[in-house]
Amino acid sequence: MAFPATNLPRRDLYPEIEPFRSGWMATGGQHEIYYEQCGNPAGTPVVVLHGGPGGAVNAGMRRYFDPAKYHIVLFDQRGCGKSRPNASLEENTTWTLIEDIERLRHQLGIEKWSVFGGSWGSTLSLAYAITHPERTASLILRGIFLLTKKELHWFYQEGASMIFPDAWERFVEPIPEDERHDLMGAYYKRLTGSDRAEQERCAVAWSSWEGDTVSVQGPSGRPEKFAEPAFALAFARIECWYFVNGGFFPEEHWITKNIDRIRHIPCWIAQGRFDVVTPITSAWVLHRAWPEATLDIVPDAGHASSEPGIIDSLIRATDWASGL
Question: Mean pLDDT over residues 239-263, rounded?
Fold first, then answer.
């Protein structure tokens, strides 16, 4: 169902909190996963899946939940944030991430939890729920990304380029004109090449393009981290790796084809009307396939989770889910 408009004052983030426990989880391979637990250990369990792929959790992500009601679990996915080794593509797929989520749930002794994710985090949340519906109590999603060829073409080849031509010019600058017909392929070659300086240059350009477009403010609202090589290298390498491989899904539209497996799970979708990174059409496609889910279209927001309307929707969503 579409969520009706509300005239209530917009909600803001909960107060800052610190983890009550953090550490690294072994995976049985080369990867070690950083995770942290916040809030009430006896509260409603929720796992937070960050975007990217290749992003990382941050302190702000703890604040979408009432710390008295929620046991909040956050972790950095393989190869990024504080997880080790950094920027590694080996054994790094959607399915190994789902294994990590299950491994972490088991290690923490959680039987079932809510799953919270935006952008790529929405993709991973849906894939996890479809794979483990019996472990998913509810879904809270933002900026729906179904990882289809159409979405990738829009953002990395032609579409978003017409809305942000200034930022696009900076994005294509590292790539020779005769390779620009396949920008993801051209970037992948450089991001996985042996020239470290070229890797970093292309990583910052790739990452900055996303940072320039995440909010309705455009480039002036770009978060600083997107232009920092230490963040950008893992972010760009892992994103490009996942995208050239179609998210490692067995077929395109795998998520919408498997909605019947999760149709019974309560779901809230927060979607910015002016989201350029993951345009609203993907949320609409998901809503059409899954009308039982709540779709809250935020009329004055883009993609960023930090925009006031998105914050309001997500806070209302987590309050709603805590009472299920």
Answer: 98
pLDDT tens track for 124-139: 999 999 999 999 999 9
Neighbours of 140 (CB within 10 A): 28
Pure H helices in 74-133: 94-108, 120-131
pLDDT tens, residue by residue, 186-203: 999 999 999 999 999 999
DSSP codes of every residue in 24-46: EEE-SSS-EEEEEEEE-TTSEEE
pLDDT band for position 222 (cuts 50, 70, 90): confident
What is each CA distance from 33 to 76, 97, 154, 235, 288, in whole angstroms?
Answer: 6, 10, 32, 16, 36
User: How far is residue 212 from each of residues 54, 112, 155, 165, 269, measured CA to CA in Å?
Assistant: 17, 37, 12, 11, 24
- pLDDT (0 to 100) of residue 5: 54
H or E segment to which residue 156 belongs: helix 149-156
Overall average pLDDT of the 245-262 stretch: 98
Helix (DSSP H) and strand (DSSP E) numbers for the chain: 10, 8
The token pair that represents 276 in the structure block:
């350029």
Instruction: Please write the tens of the pLDDT for every residue from 71-83.
Output: 999 999 999 999 9
Q: What is the 3-state secondary structure (H, E, C) of 219-287?
A: HHHCCHHHHCHHHHHHHHHHHHHHHHCHHHCCCCCHHHHCHHHCCCCCEEEEEECCCCCCCHHHHHHHH
Q: Angle, nearest 10°, between helix axes 149-156 and 183-191?
A: 80
Per the DSSP assignment, residues forming a β-bridge with 38 are 72
Transcribe 63-82 into DSSP letters.
GGS-TTTEEEEEEPPTTSTT
**CA 89 → CA 4, 120, 195, 235, distances in Å?**
43, 17, 17, 11
Q: Give the C-alpha separation, 108 to 73, whole Å.
A: 9
**Catalytic annotation, residues:** 119, 275, 303
Residue whose tokens read 């927060």: 270
Half-sphere exposure (CA, 13 Å, Cβ side) for 274?
14
